[in-house]
Structures are given as C-alpha cells and as structure tokens.
Design brief:
By secondary structure, the chain is an alpha+beta fold. It contains 2 helices and 4 strands. Strand 1, helix 1 and strand 2 form a beta-alpha-beta unit.
Amino acid sequence: MEQKSKTNGIFIGSKPLMNYVTGVIVQFNSTEAKEVIIKSRGKFTSKAIDIAELTKRKFSKEGIKTKDIKIGSEEFVTKEGKKVTVSTLEITMVRD
C-alpha cells in the first residue's frame, strides 16, 4: 500500500526551466493543492528563484503568489570522506 505525500514539492535539478514551471502549475491544477514548495540545493538555488518568479508572472491571473522563503544549509560526507556544506532553498507558492 502506497502512502501519499502531504507536501507538494518540486525538486529542482538540471532539466529545462519551463519543465519545472509546468510542474508547479500541474501540481496546483491536478492535485488541487493549496500550496507547492519549490526545493533546491547548491548551484540550483538561483534556478529555483527564476522558476518561482516566472510562475508568478505568467500565472498571476490564477492568483499564484509567494507565501514563504526558507534558506538553510545541509552538511554531508562525500564518497571520498570529505565533509561538504550545501546551501538549501525552499520557496512556498500559494494560489488564492
């Protein structure tokens, strides 16, 4: 039996920008989510900001806005045993 996640998160990676914008809109429309969280780490944080802003501008008629922004960092150990700290970003988008 599968468990459904209560959060509607989009994890940003190396796909084209518009794929993620479309993903945010699909989350709002298909799951009727009240909010979608755009999550990124490291070099993809600036891309997450672009996605949030593009989504707001293109779909402002649908009432999509930024609710919250959280920044932080995660620490992990690489395969070589080196300790690395990576910046994290979570942008919560809501629809009125």
